[in-house]
Design goal:
This protein is an all-alpha fold. Helices cover 55% and strands 2% of the residues. It starts with 11 loop residues before the first strand and ends in a 7-residue tail after the last helix.
């Protein structure tokens, strides 16, 4: 997008009551966000994590930022005093991020675009969980996707970074979030228990199922097979998610992850992928408890999109050009 003379603003809440959800669904932010998710979905179709792709300096800079967050976890051990909900050391870790977020992001964004730093950094701060409740959920995950979307919109990340955005950056983000969840025993935010897809994440199941479309041997029924998961999790995000779930939960898979168990009965990965996109819209993007926390700025504005729904759908599917 042309950024000369662009006025950046620190994003703020706009969805205060349930009726405000209509504003969100008509907003430029919604169109940009879902378009970004679907563009990456197309990019990773049929590709392994271990496939070859370009890793730009900008991607390396974001990875370095995530490595810093990881190191801070090591430097902030959990407190010995047990508490019923989450470990309070998370608040110490989080306060470090709150203080340093703009410095971290200013290394990723070139000096000529320094005015964008406070706006983009806010999404990073929102992407790691809530320090009061010591919880994490799909709203925090959405903030990280918004952070990446903003980096694309200001031209830091480019179209040929798409595979690296999912396979390197988002995958590293997942590793750091899993470490946070385990280290500080974070609660799932707004968990639906066994009726939700997963306690913490959603996007890796979408992009992970896209990776497996038209796979010659692996079918959806195979992901409940421990041997298959252990042999293939380094190639496929979806299987790594399954491996993490089975590591964290005890008992039969059908009981602790009922939705995923049901998905394993779907015959083709393309159907799984389409179904998960529909489910993500319904269960995350159209749910007030999730979206009430989303923040809107100049890059992801609350202002309505001027496209009719058909144009909006087409634009969502071909947003690649606007990410250049």
């Amino acid at each position: 997008m042309p950024l000369a003379g662009h006025s950046f603003i620190v994003p703020k809440k706009e969805i205060h009551m349930v009726p405000d959800m209509a504003k969100w669904k008509r907003s430029q932010a919604y169109a940009e966000y879902i378009g970004f998710i679907l563009t990456l979905n197309e990019a990773v179709k049929g590709k392994k994590l271990t496939s070859e792709y370009k890793v730009s300096e900008a991607v390396e800079a974001v990875l370095s930022l995530l490595n810093t967050l990881d190191r801070w976890i090591d430097e902030t051990p959990p407190m010995d005093r047990p508490s019923r909900f989450g470990n309070k050391a998370f608040r110490t870790w989080y306060s470090k991020l709150e203080q340093e977020a703009e410095n971290l992001v200013s290394v990723v964004i070139p000096p000529a675009l320094s005015a964008a730093v406070p706006e983009v950094a806010l999404y990073l701060k929102e992407s790691v969980g809530n320090s009061t409740r010591i919880d994490y959920g799909t709203g925090h995950e959405a903030a990280f996707a918004a952070f990446l979307c903003c980096l694309c919109k200001v031209g830091v990340l480019k179209v040929d970074d798409q595979l690296a955005i999912v396979f390197q950056i988002f995958n590293r983000y997942l590793e750091v979030m899993r470490k946070l969840q385990k280290t500080y025993r974070m609660e799932p935010a707004g968990s639906q228990g066994v009726w939700g897809l997963d306690d913490f994440q959603f996007l890796p199941f979408i992009w992970g199922s896209a990776q497996l479309i038209d796979h010659p041997t692996l079918e959806p029924r195979h992901f409940v097979d421990e041997k298959v998961v252990n042999e293939n999790h380094k190639d496929y995000i979806f299987l790594e998610c399954i491996r993490f779930i089975t590591e964290m939960k005890t008992g039969p898979f059908a009981e602790h992850s009922n939705q995923l168990w049901n998905i394993s009965a779907v015959p083709a990965w393309s159907k799984v992928n389409q179904g998960l996109i529909r489910m993500y819209k319904a269960e995350c993007l159209e749910k007030f408890p999730v979206i009430q926390h989303f923040k809107f700025g100049s890059l992801l504005p609350i202002q309505p999109t001027h496209l009719v729904p058909e144009e909006q759908r087409r634009r969502s599917e071909h947003l690649t050009t606007s990410l250049q």
